[in-house]
Design goal:
The chain is of the alpha/beta class. The protein is 22% helix and 23% strand. It is built from 18 helices and 35 strands. The strands form ten sheets. The chain has a seven-stranded mixed sheet. Strands 6, 7, 8, 9, 18, 19 and 20 form a seven-stranded mixed sheet that branches. Strands 27-23-30-26-32 form a five-stranded mixed sheet. Helix 9 links the parallel strand 14 and strand 15. Helix 8 packs across helix 9 and helix 13 crosses helix 17. The radius of gyration is 26 Å and the shape is globular. The N terminus and C terminus are likely disordered.
Length: 723
Amino acid sequence: MRASLRWPAVVGAGAMLGSSLILAVPAVADPGSVEDPQSGQIVGVEDTPNNIVKDVEDALQGSADDVAVPGNDVAVPGGSALLADDFVGNLTIFGTTDVHGSVFNWDYFSDSVPAKDADQRGLSRVASAISEARAAVGAESVLVLDNGDAMQGTPLTYLAAEHPERLASTIHPMAEAFNTIRYDAQNLGNHEFNYGLDTLSRYKSELNAPLLGANVNTLTGSLSFQPYEIIEKVVGGETVKIGVMGLVTPGVRVWDKAHVEGVLEFEDLVLAAQRTVPLMEADGADVIVALVHSGQNAPGVAWDPTQLQENVATSVSTLVKGLDVVIAGHSHVNIPSEVFKDPDGSPVLYTQPYFWARSASQITLPIASDGVGGFKVAWPATDAEIQALAVPKYSVGQPDSTLITEHKTLPEDHQITKDYVNSVVATNLQEMTTESSRYEDTPILDIIGYVMENSVREGLQGTEYEDLPVIAQTSPFSRTSVFPEGDLRVRDIAGLYIYDNTLAAALMTGAELKDYLEWSARFFVQATEDKPWDPETHTNALYEGATRGIPDYNFDAVTGDLTYQIDITKPVGERVVNLKNLDGSPVAQDQQFVMAVNNYRQAGGGGYPVMSAIWDEQLEIRQLIIEYAQEVREIDQANFHVKNWELITVASEVTPDPDPEPKPEPKPDPKPEQKPEKPAETGKGTLPNTGADTLPILTGALVLLTLGGAGLAVGKRRRSIDG
């Protein structure tokens, strides 16, 4: 879906006339959003369709830098006429969200500054915009907030969580950056839970600002989060109290179930906000800001608190009394400014900054006396004027702040991370790419499945499951990942397997496998004579009630000792045909398989069935691929690539009995006499997940199905850092 962007343009000049203020008003009409089809999976603009990239770049090139923010003693932005005696001054708020470890303007996977203007990023750029505002209006009137998903997303944050001893910083580098910029409060994002509660607790203790979670309730008392913070700022010489509340999508209970089950409970965001706002008001809050790590509601989907819905930021904005500002996130959509109305008809200013610190939202709130000893937001008369109070500060227009570039440890951490990702682990004999992996069987996904299968086989040796056939689910996380011919580096593997997912194994019958593959095949739009197959239009199918099309990472291709076809000329639920064993016999409904699966999918991520693990040693899949490359030293597709599935795009292509290629027996690859130097990297994996994924919208037998039988107790194994 092509989105549009409309950007503010100054249409007037402000002047003081008598006792009233007539102000410059940036006109904003129907601001749209740019949606990255890969949103939630931490991918670059280069992974979006060209038309969306062009929208972002055109908007950046064609928009004014920003609307000037007057000093607190000069004018009120907006356009309403206010009595000068009532007006106090302007409160400036900066908000970021979904920074995902982007401290510097650097792409660790390409080992370069991002090539596109729209992809410039980093807290180093945001810090410059904040410093500029503090210098212009006074630091005492500037409030700086982050809306979560900071701890995960780059090799820097991976090292910080799994191997902090490698880094120069004695605390988490994201805490170093936020503390250095002097953030006032932060919200939890779902990715804050990826590395476990011990890591999160340590990070929380390292922050100078409070880490908020109003809808996160502690069951065991081991880790708790305050629901809100009252922060005092000086505006026009007056002390104004701002209540800041944090809310995080309850999808955490699914995506990081292994970490939070029985320890933390996640409440519906709207109910939590309705309960918390009166507490902030009673605590003296003059202005109330909600940090909502959740995207806007899907069109046509009503709020239902019993469902613990993932994306309800619109409902928070419209169903909670007393909010002034909502800073949203999670869905990786760029929404500079919108206006909603609360149940009393009062305005709520809504903004969602762009992810990876590609932008920060700068909000200028006119503050006036409320006549009873407190203060209030002096809202302009029209929605267009209110909308103009929030403007994006894009990183592309900002220099890198010396606060970050000359920090005592962050530049060294950055260099250590670059050295790590550039470590050579093997020689690759032939280039492989994910460009077409969403619609055809490719070697670069098969290497993932091959490593997963063999790791599970090894883990199941000596158990009752060791003789069962092992299959593996693989997903294309990006359309631009490449294993180049020649030197293969850690960053190439990290660019392919961008998540810190861990490996598990579950039992699956033939009938369950068929249902699983049918669910995956929903990814495709049905091909017809009128609308013939085109990978650009027949992938990422959009279903009613969803906020976006199915992302690439929720299409699963299954590798292993089987073959199948996906006939996309047929309706959903009837597409998987010729599901056979390698000997050509049909897969029986009661036939048993062991599925090698990542933890996100095993927990039901993407609407797939929850699977009961029979084996789980918390081994990180990306690290297993790195170790495989280090062991074999030469990556040869002949050792792992078998085309065992294909699409049928026209009805005549159906072949009743596809002749499968012979599957190579799993065996160690031939090893040269010498190994290249290892990058000294291994480690126990974590339980991260794809952040902006849609929780199950469709219900039914498939979604409710729990796969597998009795669990096999297997102790966790932590690999040494030297492999």
